[in-house]
Amino acid sequence: MVWKRIWLFLLTCGASGLLTVVGSFGGHALGRTGLFVGAVVGGITGIALAGLIARRLRLIDHRSYLPAVIGGTVGYVLAAVIAVNNLHTPVVPILSVSLVGLGAVAGSLIGRNQLQ
């Protein structure tokens, strides 16, 4: 059970991080605001995609999908606020991505506990 949570954490962090970068590249053509909007849309899309993959791989129960996505999104918003306020160092924004994975794991656990 612990390994499933670790894989959910890694999958969510990786997918949201990758799609945040891809979204920011796409939004960059629209200027500074487009860069941030593209990053947020890409990151949240990555969280939803990670949830679908996790459900498909049976890392989470199908009823825990929505709580995991909501938890990951809350973590993403916190990570974005921390990252934007600490752009002077690359370490803090990179480490803040872990909040996305922690949020997804917490959400899936809350969803699982509500099902019982």
Description of the molecule:
The chain is mostly helical. It has one domain (2-115). 84% of the residues lie in helices and 0% in strands. It is built from 5 helices and no strands. Helix 2 packs antiparallel against helix 3 (65-85). The longest helix is centred in the first third of the chain and has 27 residues, at 2-28. The protein starts with a helix and ends with a helix.
Helices and strands in order, then pairings?
Elements: H1 2-28, H2 32-56, H3 65-85, H4 91-96, H5 98-115
Helix pairs in contact: 1-2, 1-5, 2-3, 3-5
Low-confidence stretches: none
H/E element string? HHHHH
**Helix content bin:** over 70%
Summed up, the domain count is 1
Global shape: globular
Q: What is the assembly state of the chains in this entry? A: single chain
Largest sheet: none
Q: Would you tell me the structural class of the helices and strands?
A: mainly alpha
Radius of gyration: 14 Å
Strand content range: under 5%
- Could you tell me the number of beta strands? 0
Rounded mean pLDDT is 92
Rounded to the nearest angstrom, the distance between the terminal CA atoms is 16 Å
Number of helices: 5
